[in-house]
Every structure is written in structure tokens, then in C-alpha cells.
Design a protein that fits this description.
With 666 residues, the protein is mostly beta strands. The chain has four domains: 223 residues, Jelly Rolls; 112 residues, Sandwich (Immunoglobulin-like); 177 residues, Sandwich (Jelly Rolls), CATH 2.60.120; 110 residues, Immunoglobulin-like, CATH 2.60.40. Helix content is 4%, strand content 49%. It is built from four helices and 49 strands. Strands 1, 3, 4, 6, 11, 12, 13 and 15 form an eight-stranded antiparallel beta sheet that branches. Strands 24, 26, 27, 29, 34, 35, 36 and 38 form an eight-stranded antiparallel beta sheet that branches. The longest helix has 11 residues. The N terminus is likely disordered.
């Protein structure tokens, strides 16, 4: 299956850069061809197709002097493309004039001739014969070795706007940024006037990195268009791939997890499943009485519908609800991700597994082989009746301090969260260390103190000689004796928070200990603190959030071949339309339709002939997901090919897109 944009007349130059040698051809009729010079490697792996890699010494692409890339007074434009680098400085795209130093359209890395900001994307525009009245915008750091999508626009005036990865980084206006801009030194990977004049450093003048899919338009592209273009070029606007279902399960619902910067892959999210009926929202989903009462048939999959995700059941009340932690495999740093919850299989039993789900986990159902008994009091700490008892505490010196550290198997706690279920004896003081190093006595710990007037607090260091962190002493909210509570510590940088049964109890800020370390389960003063289970998970602030839930689908053998995901805040209208085919007469029945709860038949072949070649418009909600599904039967062996357009109109933006899709039916 392939997809391809169809370009419109406002594009004045489109350099895909797929050529492995020689000239780079312009996909528009304007002949803005690119000629590689110096240290350029063609045909490297790109973001969209092939890309060019520049050596940072002499390599650049000269893309000519056509008048189609000159701009008149108050004439708008848009420059866009992809860049990948780990360098701090360099020229990405530059349009200058060999005898007029005023004319500038530059997209730069780290230095734009006016301001230095290592690794940051920058845009600067000045009209011909200008001197100091430029407009410039500095964007974020992009030299992380990943592909980033840059866009520089000018409106019908003197205001420019810089975008990175589809997001605006701000606007700027200059007294000399709205006039005519006539250029004849145009390059990717080099600032040619700087090279001629010896301006800046050698690093400033050339890019050490890669560039792909560069396009120029003679209009100002809208923010919605830029966002949609970004999503489409990173192959997320439309996601390709087969999607199946879990065999034997009766029902499923889709669920969107919204991203948060830095979350990455394998992030754990909490979902509560209710046995009865209700309205799905946030982290709550209702199974409508169709699951097992013990929730043993509940499973979670990736967005392909079949790849199982690890999960662990924190707690459950049969016939009422179960609290799950699910490890989301896909990257939640920048993109919404979809998962499925399956249910409705009467003979299934749970596959709950905390060790597979979390960064570190122990429910004390076995031994203490994951731990080091760092500080002991008699036989404690030890496992008793399925929980770990940190016992032997006394109310007189030396108080029987015990500590069970995770260093034999886990010392990677830094910016994480640790959850645990614990109960304290009368006058017991339970404490959990994090970022700990027992030998060096470094790190922090929380405290839940059962003594009158005490409660929750943060202290440092965790093993001896501790004291309260400034502003984080006891809160006076004393936990009851011999009552189980679920606690959670979150740590990001110098900020720590302590929750009890989901309610924030204490916040602390401290910068002293910034290295990763172990966790340790402790008790002193009172007789014991019991720990039922402990789990370490990933944590960023803010966390990925829960998005929409799909409707309940009965699981069938429908073959979903394409996912369509609306990445913008406006609704879409979509439909399919055939434009060619091959060998379809062998198809007894072939239905291609859009599906997400309801269905919309788009293309229909019966008895080898078309009954329907274009579908009705189908509404796709903002941030919504839909699927193209195929149901097919054939009268003979062979391969049939159906060529179709996916037509997309983005409401409220004037943006439309057309994708070519090839269905190979074998």
C-alpha cells in the first residue's frame, strides 16, 4: 500500500531529494532544480524518502536563480522541510543575493547573524537593500539527532512566523521585512554570502547534518495546514498497517492516550474497568456486564488490535471493578496512541504480571532475592503471610531501624514514581527511600508516621542522620494504625510529591541528590511497617492523559488495512474514490468501507463489476480515529489491484489533501 500527496499550483519548488546521484529535480514546473556541491552524500535514509547528508565543511545544494522564488512587496511565502543534526551551528536553508547583502531568507541552526543560541532553530527575513530592520524568531533546540519539521512563513505584510514540528514558535515583524526580496544565491546546507565574505565561523556557514523534503510556496500556509502537513509527512496523518482482533474474545473498545513530552515508550497508565454499565470517560471504562465477574478475561492490545500489552491488576472487587496498570508500548512523547481493551471470553484467566509491567516490582509472593537486608533488627525484614514485614522496631533507642534495599537488582530510580501498599503499627514510622545509595548514605525518603501529631513528610539522607527537608516536615495528617494505604512518591528533577490513596499530602523541593539510586523499604520506632507490594514506574510531569473511548465493538474477522487519525483540532470529512484497477473480475464480493462503531460503504464490487466507485462523505471528529476495512471473497486465485484516492477536507481551515492508495487483494 502506498500514499502520495498531489501537489497544487501554489508550490513553487518541491525537492523530494530521492535521487542517489546527480541533479535533484523539482516536482513543480518551475525548474528549481538542485545541484549538489562539495561534501554532499545523496540517497541516505530520509524522513519521507531519500535525503541528503552534508559534511559541514563544503557540502551544499545550489537550487538555482529562477524568478519564481523572488517575492514582491508584501508578498507571502512559506518555506518548509525536514532537518536532522547533532551540531550546534549551521545553515539549513538560505536565499541571498551576491551584490545585495540586504536580501535574506534564512533558516539557521544556532546562529542567524544577529543572535547565538546553540542548537536552536532560527528564522530571519529582510528585504532587498535592507540594513537592520529584519524580522527574526528563535525556536527550540533541535540538535538531538532526530528529524524535525521546520516551516518559515511571511504574511501579506512584514510579519514572519516560525514553526517546529507543526507548532508555532512565535511571530516577529521588522521595518524592513515586508518588501521585495530578490535572490540569486540559494542553497540548502550553506549560507553562501557568509562563505563569500568569511562571515561567522566555519561551523556557522555549513550544516553538518541531513535535509529532506524541502518545499516553497507563494502563499502563507495556515497553522492548520502546517500541522496537517507535519503529521502526513511523518506518516502519522494516515497510519498504514494491518489491524486484526484477538481470537475468541467477544468485545473490545478503543482508547486514546494523549502524549506528554519525555514520556517515551513503555509508559504505565492506570485504567479502572467497571463490570456494569456507564459512560466511559478519562481512565474509567464500563464492560456492560459482558466480562467475567473476576475480570480474568480483560486484555489490552496495541493499536494493531492483536499485540498484547503487559498489565497488572492492582486491586479488584469481583462483579464491581478492577484497577489495572497497562504498559503502553508506543511512544507517548509527542503523539496520541491508541490501545484496545478486550473482554467477553468466559474461559479466560488473568495474565496479570507486575514484573513485566513495571520498571521494578515485587509482591513478596516468593523470597527476598531482589533485595539487600541493609539494616536488620532480629529476623526482620522478612516475608510473612504474603507481605514483607519490616519489624523489630521499638519506642526506645536505638529504635530498631530496618532497611530493605533494591540495589541487587534495581538502582535506576531518578525521575520516576514508586507505588506501594503499606500499613503501620501503633506508633510505627514507615519510610521509603529513593535515589538511595546505602554505602554513601545519600538520597531521600518519605515518611508516614503513625504517632500523634505527625503524618507525612520528606527527609534526607535516608539511612542515618536524617532531617526534614525544608518546608516538608510532618503534615499532621496521621494514618490510622493497622490500616492498609496505597502510597506513591513522584520525583522529577528537584521536586518530590507524596500521595496517600490518591490524595497529595506533601511536596518537597531539594537539589542535593541528583543521581539515580535504589529504593529501600524501612521501619523504625513502632513495632513494624508491612509492605504488601511495591512498583516503580516511569513518570513525567504532566503525565500522559486519557483521551476518548471508542464504542463497544463486537469482535469479528473484519480485516482493517488502514488507520486514519485526525491530528488537528478541527473535524475532517473523508471519502474514498477509485480511479483505476486491475483484474477485479475475479472478485465475487469486495467491499471497502470506513468503520469506527458505524460503517460507511465506499467502494463495492459484486460479481467482478463495480456497484459503487465513490463513497459518501464521512465525518471524522477532531482528534478522532477511523479505519478503512476490507471484506473480500474471490472466485479464483490471483491478485487484484484497486487504485483509489483518499480525499480529506479539514473543516474551518480551507485545507484539503488527496492521497493515493493501492489495495492489493490476493
Amino acid at each position: 500500500m502506498t500514499a502520495q500527496n498531489v501537489w497544487e499550483s501554489n508550490f513553487k519548488a518541491v525537492l523530494h531529494l530521492p535521487e542517489t546521484s546527480g541533479t535533484h529535480y523539482d516536482s513543480t514546473p518551475n525548474s528549481n532544480i538542485g545541484t549538489p556541491q562539495g561534501g554532499v552524500t545523496q540517497g541516505d535514509a530520509g524522513k519521507v524518502d531519500g535525503a541528503d547528508t552534508f559534511d559541514g565543511i563544503s557540502g551544499y545544494i545550489n537550487y538555482g536563480t529562477s524568478t519564481s522564488l523572488n517575492f514582491g512587496v508584501n508578498s507571502p511565502f512559506t518555506f518548509e522541510g525536514w532537518v536532522k543534526t547533532t551540531e550546534s551551528y549551521g545553515a539549513i536553508l538560505s536565499q541571498r543575493h551576491d551584490t545585495d547583502g540586504g536580501a535574506v531568507i534564512d533558516v539557521m541552526l544556532g546562529y542567524d547573524g544577529a543572535v547565538r543560541s546553540a542548537g536552536s532553530l532560527m528564522g530571519l527575513v529582510r528585504q532587498s537593500s535592507g540594513s537592520s530592520g529584519y524580522a527574526r524568531v528563535t525556536g527550540p533546540i533541535v540538535n538531538d539527532g532526530n528529524w524535525h519539521y521546520f516551516t518559515l512563513t511571511r504574511n501579506s505584510g512584514n510579519t514572519i512566523e516560525l514553526f517546529v514540528d507543526g507548532i508555532s514558535q512565535g511571530t516577529a515583524s521588522g521595518s524592513e521585512s515586508g518588501g521585495t526580496i530578490t535572490t540569486n544565491l540559494r542553497a540548502l546546507g550553506s549560507e553562501r554570502i557568509w562563505v563569500q565574505a568569511g562571515f561567522g565561523t566555519a561551523d556557522d556557514r555549513y550544516l553538518n547534518g541531513a535535509i529532506d523534503e524541502v518545499r516553497t510556496s507563494n502563499i502563507q500556509r495556515s497553522a492548520a495546514w502546517i500541522k496537517a502537513s507535519y503529521e502526513s509527512e511523518r506518516d502519522y496523518f494516515v497510519r498504514w498497517g494491518n489491524q486484526g482482533t484477538l481470537s475468541g474474545w467477544g468485545y473490545r473498545k478503543s482508547h486514546v492516550i494523549n502524549p506528554s513530552p519525555g514520556a517515551g515508550t513503555n509508559y504505565q497508565v492506570r485504567i479502572t474497568a467497571y463490570y456494569g454499565s456507564g459512560t466511559d470517560s478519562e481512565a474509567n471504562v464500563y464492560l456492560n456486564g459482558k466480562s467475567r465477574t473476576d475480570f480474568g478475561d480483560v486484555r489490552f492490545t496495541d493499536d494493531d488490535g492483536t499485540t498484547l500489552l503487559d498489565y497488572w491488576i492492582e486491586s479488584k472487587v469481583d462483579g464491581d471493578n478492577a484497577v489495572f496498570w497497562v504498559e503502553v508500548a508506543d511512544d507517548l512523547s509527542t503523539e496520541d496512541q491508541t490501545i484496545y481493551v478486550y473482554y467477553g471470553k468466559s474461559d479466560a484467566t488473568t495474565t496479570s504480571n507486575g514484573t513485566n509491567t513495571f520498571n521494578f516490582f515485587d509482591d513478596f509472593s516468593g523470597d527476598l532475592s531482589k533485595w539487600s537486608r541493609e539494616k536488620t533488627s532480629g529476623v526482620y525484614p522478612q516475608i510473612e503471610n504474603g507481605y514483607m514485614r519490616a519489624g523489630g522496631g521499638t519506642t526506645s533507642s536505638p529504635y530498631g531501624h530496618t532497611s530493605l534495599g533494591s540495589s541487587p537488582t534495581y538502582s535506576a530510580f531518578l525521575n520516576n514514581a514508586v507505588l506501594y501498599r503499606a500499613r503501620m503499627s501503633l506508633n510505627g514510622i514507615g519510610e521509603v527511600a529513593f535515589r538511595g545509595n546505602f554505602a554513601a548514605n545519600t538520597g531521600y525518603k518519605d515518611r508516614h508516621d503513625q504517632r500523634s501529631g505527625q503524618g507525612q513528610s520528606f527527609l534526607k539522607p535516608p539511612y542515618s542522620g536524617w532531617g526534614f527537608i525544608t518546608g516538608a516536615g510532618a503534615d499532621g495528617k496521621v494514618p490510622s494504625a493497622d490500616v492498609w494505604y496505597t502510597f506513591e512518591i513522584t520525583a522529577v528533577g528537584d521536586t518530590f510529591k507524596l500521595y496517600r490513596d490518591g490524595v497529595l499530602k506533601r511536596t518537597a523541593t531539594d537539589t542535593q541528590y541528583s543521581n539515580a539510586g535504589e529504593i529501600a523499604l524501612q521501619n523504625h520506632y513502632g513495632s513494624y511497617t508491612d509492605y504488601d507490594w511495591v512498583a516503580v514506574r516511569k513518570y513525567v510531569s504532566p503525565e500522559p492523559s486519557h483521551g476518548s473511548w471508542g464504542s463497544e465493538d463486537g469482535v469479528s474477522a473484519t480485516y482493517y488495512v488502514l488507520r486514519i487519525y485526525n491530528t488537528v483540532a478541527d473535524p475532517w470529512r473523508i471519502r474514498l474514490r477509485t480511479y483505476s484497477d486491475s483484474n477485479v473480475n475475479r472478485l465475487g464480493n469486495c467491499t471497502i468501507y470506513l468503520h469506527n462503531g458505524g460503517t460507511s460503504r465506499q467502494i463495492y464490487i459484486n460479481g467482478g463489476s463495480y456497484v459503487q466507485q465513490v463513497g459518501d462523505w464521512y465525518d471524522l471528529a477532531a482528534s478522532g480515529t477511523d479505519y478503512i476495512a476490507v471484506s473480500v471473497s474471490a472466485n479464483s486465485q490471483g491478485t487484484s489491484i484497486i487504485y483509489a484516492y483518499l480525499e480529506v477536507i479539514i473543516s474551518n481551515s480551507g485545507v484539503s489533501m488527496l492521497y493515493k492508495i493501492t489495495f492489493n487483494v490476493t
